[in-house]
Amino acid sequence: MAEKIYERLERISFSRPSGTKEERRAAEILIREIRGIGLEPEVEEFTYLRRYPKEAELRAILEDGSEEAFQVTGVIDAAETPEEGTETEFYYLKSFDEVSLTRVKGKLVLIHDRLSPQEYERLRKAGIAGYLTTSGTVRDTYENSDLETGRFRDNLHDLGAVPAFTIRMIDAVNLLRSRPKKVFFKLRFREEEIHSQNLVVTIEGKKYPDQILVAGAHYDSVPFSLGSWDNGAGAVRILELLEYYKNRIPDRTVKAILFGSEETGLRGSRAFLAAHADLGEQILAMLNVDVGGSILGKEIIFVTASDDTEVWIRQLLKEVGYEAVTTQKLMSSDSASFNDWGIPSISIGQGAPRGGGYMHTRYDNMDLIDEKVLKEEAEFLNTLADRLVNAKVFPIPRFLPEKLQKEVISYFGASQSRLVSHPAKPEEKPLPFHF
Fold first, then answer.
1. Is 0.70 surpassed by the pTM of this model?
2. To pair with 171 at 20 to 30 A between CA atoms, which of 61, 78, 319, 431?
3. Which CATH class is domain 51-192?
4. What three-state secondary structure class fits 192?
């Protein structure tokens, strides 16, 4: 298994962003792999509209009247500036303390990282004109780094969008050193129709064909990344799962899905659920695989399900001797789309040690991918799926605890989350015991 799964990963390790010919090429490679296993995938096309930056400009206006330009990218789906741009004061927000928030009104604000909804709400109430977030590290050079194009999260739109940009960390330092009197910024968008596709393979159960376990992974990458870790490693583990079930017909139906366009807002998984609303009640749970295969790091299992499910997973880890930690929370991946339909999920990921992570960078390639790690991860996925689809009674309640429902709604935003109008049903209490 180890050599085959490694070679499969090598074949799709090239940059394959949403809607590009490279994403389509990756899909065609995966289709050939599935057919080589002896199965036939359904190719489900979908489209979505995206507002993509066509102009993004930032200039520092210095005390002597001179100007210094900085390279920035606009944040996808943020707000536009007027056609002529905006000139305003600049502020470096080091923390979200009350004193600092009194100083941001009407200013372009530099922050350290992506914003939580709570932080963004505070900035909006404080009256910011826009914000800058950073990409990379202070040790980067222009030659060894790329400037990420971020996305304005759905859950922030409920609060109203502002112009937003990403700047290299090294340029953020230079911007601060210039001590600008003011800044000029401009952000304009074009609307694009993006075409992508999901690959769906159904292995019908022999006993309970109407009970479905979805197992999925996304196969697209961010621009400039080869996406070996995120998430080619997940895609090839789904191929291994298909190979496992080719000659082992499960009791319940396994629907394996390779999702397109996850990196631009879980587009593939959301499109699948919208197109298959009739399957909603038949899907008992979702297994999601996102990030893995690195020789560095620890295995993490995100349990977006009942308390008992996390206990069950921990016991399974002990029983089969698989090294991993569990956490009962939402994973920012395709599983979240299923959670928003009230479907519990178990997501398998991998965390990198400090200095060993390379997600969404040009360094996400095959350099740290290890055959043995891939093999062990694939074997555990097969074991986990097997315990679920062949259980006498399905061990995961089709239910999300209230705390997780709140997390899902916060993640998507109240105006976007399906759970707001379709809350998950309360868990059934066991019947009282009598002698």
1. yes
2. 78
3. alpha beta
4. strand
